[in-house]
Structures
1.
Amino acid sequence: MTTREPSSPRPAVRVAAQTGDVLGESPLWHPVDGCLYWLDLAGARLHRMDMAGRVDTRRVDRPPPLGAIVAGPAAGRLVLSASDGVWLYDWAREALTPLCHPEAGRSGIGYNDAKVDRWGRLWIGTSDLAERDPRGALWCWVPGSEPVLADTGFTVVNGPAFSPDGRTLYLSDSLARRVLAYDLGPERGELHNRRVFAEMEADEGYPDGLTVDAEGGVWVAHWDGWRVTRFAPDGERTLIVPLPAPRITSVAFGGEDLATLFVTSARLELAGPMLEAAPLSGALFAVSAGFTGLPETPLALS
């Protein structure tokens, strides 16, 4: 891992949607229907934006906070995590079907980010809702089987994301201000060779959601850092994207040719001078990043 400051020119940034999210999160470009979805975790709201930029918002009938969304097996079908487990959401019918609940019986635990790996397994991070104790975990779930505990000892889990070949899993251990990497194989949902991929200084904020581009670069959102950073596969910082909001929460490639980086943000607990300095907090941003993403793998369900 290196920390040399990047010298690349700054990409263009625009506001894609001003939805005023309290805690905007989990952007997803659905590979089947070609729409961008994202959440307001605190408001239990789900947004969908089509290729023309039209935004439709609806409330999800689950107690907040919500956690994440990943692509389901068909257009308008999403796998959604909430405080009471993981659900299948059907946009057309606004219907919810329970899928799994690996943290059932544990109080004060919330589901956070989730992604499907290249082999179709769902990886789900959980967190201590009070953000004090290392009670969070990373779970792996294959439909039709029981969830498997993959790693523990986190206060807040964000990410995860996968290298283009699927053999590296990246994960934000947010309150420790570090991004971890693991070796991952196709045979079973087991992680090996846990290591520190990148670290952040106090003035850079906390690593939040992340994604990986087609070249293997890792894009990390900075909560309280006003930016997104791209790391090369060897951990070198190659690009910093300044943004007009401090609480940057997550990132996803989408749009035509997956050439736009969509970035969510939050206005949670911002008030007074800070909110006046960052009135776009809670908006969805679009970045002409100069890189292309990888299509997300839908979760296959019988």
Note: Residues 12-288 form a domain with the Neuraminidase fold (CATH 2.120.10.30).
2.
Amino acid sequence: MTTYLDDYTNYIYQTDYADFYNAVVRVSNSESYGTGALLYDGKSILTAAHIFEDANTDNITVYFDTKFGTQAYGATITVYEDYDTINSNGDLAILTLDENPSSFYERYDIYRDSFEIGKDFTMVGYGAYGSGSTGELYYETDILKLKTTNTFDTFFSIIGNDSSTNIAWDPLPYTILAADFDSNSSLTDAIGYILNINSIATNLTEGMIASGDSGGPAFIDNLIAGVASYSASISSYSYNTDINNYVDSSFGELGGWQRVSSYAEWIDKTIRAGYEDAPNSKEEVQKAIYEGDSGEINYTYFLLEYTEDRSDVLGNITLSYTTRDGSATAGEDYIFSSGIITLYSDESSVIIPVEIIGDDNTYEGNETFYLDVTSPSFGSFGEGVDTLTASRTILNDDFFIA
């Protein structure tokens, strides 16, 4: 992760195993490596497909940082079906972990709005580091997870369509977010020079993705809005804002992030296809679940169903959901979950998973928590009803005698 200041060890770029970014992970296939992030289901890693291109995918490993080093997990891969290797369109993959990591780690939802342009974001990754004036420092060997900021200025398709530029690839319209690496000088404001969209650095944390950051998340409001895909140096007529005229993540270059909101349906449906033993109908729903052994994480599933004729509704239906404590406590008995759930145009029901935290050290008795669903974008819950609520009981399965 190339950073703005000359000293990449400055605390403003640092991350910690216990902070919000602790579920940004390092991914590897023994031949190359990149970055990824743990999604809302607690078992899926969103990353870039090109990391695994032309490589053996039988030995994928995902590394989580811990206080004492790293914790490794095996994983299988699903690549976006229309990934275009030539033009880097749809450069996305989901890694499914062999087991859920500890509840200690964050679970990230994705950005589902379409208002990324003009917004500041935080990028996090395990890539090469240096400064905007030096570019990547190839001789550095430490593995660091750093964070920097930038602003999504435009889409790469708009840059490619501008008559003053000549890029060698064909980005799909409005699917690849672009940001340039500014130095607080108009001389390196690449997008400002090409499109007259002037922005000369967010602040001292302005940065750019570098080698090894591929697949890393770009967060808007703590939601994953972009996935790091590539960097580029682009000239306009006879002028090039890149300070050294070759791609090394230095000042004046641009980065491209796959726009997550454009692929939300694929991400959601890929995750849903992997739910184990999920109910297919309300008759199959189990309203009680054993907590399991200490350190073990299991799922309970809620089924949300649209009961009218789905074919009468054009497009998607969205609703908000959130878990709520009863006698069970989030963070101790289950993992808090909230966000937007979407019934896509071909769906009349959808599963909402919640992770249950095992504990065989303390007898607590049976405990209950709730899931509240609100704000349907279409239809209603009935006259005067604002919230649908369902409950789950966590059964204590340890020995007890009195």
Note: The longest strand covers residues 69-79.
3.
Amino acid sequence: MVDSDSARLPYFNASPAEVRRLCRAGESGPVTAGMAAGYIQANIVMLPASLADAFHEFCLRNPKPCPLVGMSRPGDYRLSSLGADLDLRTDLPLYRVWRDGNMVAETGDIRDQWRDDLVTFALGCSFSFENALTACDVPMRHLQLGRGVPVYRTNIACTPVGPFAGPVVVSMRPFRSHDAIRAVQISSLIPLAHGAPIQIGFPEEIGIADIDSPDYGDPTEVADDELPVFWACGVTPQAVLAASKPEFAITHAPGAMLVTDMPIEGYEDLVASHRGRII
């Protein structure tokens, strides 16, 4: 399927396995936005097994920012439920290594950081619904400009569990009203990619004082005839790690996701029913 936006995205119709091979070879680029349409992309959090039960419960209690799509056994870097020929140590474009709540390194390969007690959590990502919006001809300016989506910390607190607590983080995309309605309708059908937005139109209500200064990603202009639309974001666990300070953790770098073999449920019907629709 080719349209004016997806034509700019060379790996939009690539298979997840192809994207993972590119990541493994260091050839994917730093972000996975616009890749492997129709499949779930995942934020990654790797923690020592001693913290796994608490973080699992944290995800279950905070399903909007942390929609759980997979969890490994301790030391298992394959996570075969999410993909054949998948290696969690090499198949993301970029990882972050954390010690005592501080990000101490970014690297494209964590084989030398791997520990046999690590449990990996895969959490759904908004890039999955972005691909659906692109397929349905809903324009997104940050993709058109080749920029990262703007991401902000909010004043909304996650439900704490054990040592894990911190703010909900959101991503923002501006839309004119008719496209905002379509974006809400489409994203609502993909709960594993954060589902519906959590705020529309009033950033100050969720503690965002300056929409032009995101905490992560790149600024995206909100035109006078547009509404800023905010979705819960999978960077939330990184804000939680900074607050809870576990002795060791590994995460994806913002924008650098694991592309899984898990299809978006009902994706073809979703696109067929929403593509070109006028509100």
Note: The radius of gyration is 18 Å.
